[in-house]
């Protein structure tokens, strides 16, 4: 089971109301390489991956939910004081018409999250290579997001998340080596 | 309402201390998942876990429960459902 902890993994502060950035950040909330996709991808792959890497998928998958909450906090703080006019001005009129100030699992273009974003091949190497690619794509997205804001408080939290992608990618690469070593051992008679 | 902890300068300081300890523990957890035989990392993990337990205990005594389903205690009245939630601070 899971136990919720009433704190963020890392502080999230924003220095201004900025619905424009909130719209872009939605990519990491409900986009293909976003935190929701990441959490669901890893936690779903656990059941059929070799025992030696189940722990890693469980722990990274769980950390992704902490990142999802950080992104949600950013979006919430950046939009909570925005007027309908401000939301319309940055292209969030359709979002407001459907959701008011509520968050929604969609990408920056407003396309709802879909399970088609995640794969489960049942082949441990295929699954882990997908996970590595997902981390690298998320890292790139965080860089583009950092580049688009001058809010140093927001940048600080985004840089933390960018670094986590790098660590996750590294751990998944190590998991690939563990799987390969295990496979090779089994071939020796 | 009266039992609600005050969100002051000290709240952010103590919260950040806990976040720092927890960050090291998340890092060590993932590292140990792929390096289970690293004794030094394991010792550091267990030492920090103990430190984290103390830090969280003091934080909760002052600002209320961090976990529920029985993993944290509560004063009267039930503190868990009280604000603020993490995105509100």
From TrEMBL, chain A:
UniProt cross-references to SUPFAM superfamilies, sorted A to Z: Ferritin-like
Co-factor(s): Ca(2+); Mn(2+)
Chain residues that bind Ca(2+): 59
Keyword Iron: no
Parts of the chain that traverse the membrane: none
Keywords assigned by UniProt, alphabetized: Calcium, Capsid protein, Manganese, Metal-binding, Virion
GO molecular function, one term: metal ion binding
Keyword Acetylation carried by entry: no
Residues that, per the record, bind Mn(2+): 35, 64, 67, 135, 168
CDD domains (alphabetical): Mn_catalase
Cofactor binding notes: Binds 1 Ca(2+) ion per subunit.
Membership in a protein family: Belongs to the manganese catalase family.
Protein name (record): Spore coat protein JC
From TrEMBL, chain B:
Domain of life: Bacteria
UniProt-listed Pfam families: CotJB (PF12652)
UniProt KW keywords: Capsid protein, Virion
Protein CotJB domain boundaries: 13-88
Protein name, per record: Spore coat protein JB
Organism: Paenibacillus phyllosphaerae
